[in-house]
Design goal:
single chain, elongated, six-stranded mixed beta sheet, 3 helices, 166 residues, Nuclear Transport Factor 2, Chain: A
C-alpha cells in the first residue's frame, strides 16, 4: 500500500473510532451509565453543556442524577457528523436530536431539541476521547403526549438493558 492510501486508511479508522466514542456517549447518557461515560472523556476533559460547565468527572456526577430526577426516558440521536483529523487531534461537529419524556401536572410531555456537539477529540495511548465539548442548542419544543401506542416498556435506564447482554 502506498503512503497516500495508508494515510487515508488511518484517517478512516480514526473517524470510525471517534464515531464510536460519540455513540458510547449517547448510550451512557440514555442508560445512566457513569462507567461508560468515563470511557468517552479524557480525565482532564471539559464539558460545556449549557446548564453545566466543568471537568468531565464533575459533569458525569451531575448529569446522571439530573437525568434520573427530571426524565422518565431519554433518547439521543446523532445525525450529521463532520470530523477533521489532524494527527492526534480531531475537530468534530455532530448534529443531534434528543427526546426527553417527563411528567408535569399529572400529564406526560416530550421535550425535543436539536443541537450540535462541537468537540475537540484527542488520541492518547491509541484511544480517541473528548478533550473539550461545547453543546450548542439550535431549537427545542415541548409537546404534550396526546396518545400512546400501548406496548410494554421493556428497556432499562441501567446496565440491566438488553444492549449490555452479549
Amino acid at each position: 500500500m502506498n503512503a497516500e492510501k495508508e494515510a487515508a486508511l488511518d484517517d478512516i479508522i480514526a473517524k470510525q473510532q471517534i464515531h464510536e466514542t460519540i455513540m458510547r456517549y449517547c448510550r451512557g447518557v440514555d442508560r445512566l451509565d457513569a462507567e461508560l461515560l468515563r470511557t468517552v472523556y479524557h480525565p482532564d476533559g471539559y464539558d460545556n453543556h449549557g446548564g453545566f460547565r466543568g471537568v468531565a468527572e464533575d459533569f458525569i456526577r451531575w448529569v446522571i442524577p439530573e437525568m434520573r430526577r427530571l426524565y422518565k426516558s431519554t433518547n439521543h440521536f446523532i445525525c450529521n457528523e463532520l470530523v477533521e483529523v489532524k494527527g492526534d487531534t480531531a475537530y468534530c461537529e455532530s448534529y443531534f436530536i434528543a427526546h426527553h419524556r417527563f411528567d408535569r401536572d399529572g400529564r406526560e410531555y416530550d421535550m425535543v431539541f436539536g443541537g450540535r456537539y462541537i468537540d475537540v477529540m484527542e488520541r492518547r495511548n491509541g484511544e480517541w476521547k473528548i478533550k473539550k465539548r461545547n453543546v450548542l442548542h439550535d431549537w427545542n419544543r415541548i409537546d404534550p403526549v396526546a396518545e400512546r401506542f400501548e406496548v410494554p416498556i421493556n428497556s432499562h435506564r441501567s446496565r440491566e438493558d438488553l444492549c449490555y447482554r452479549r
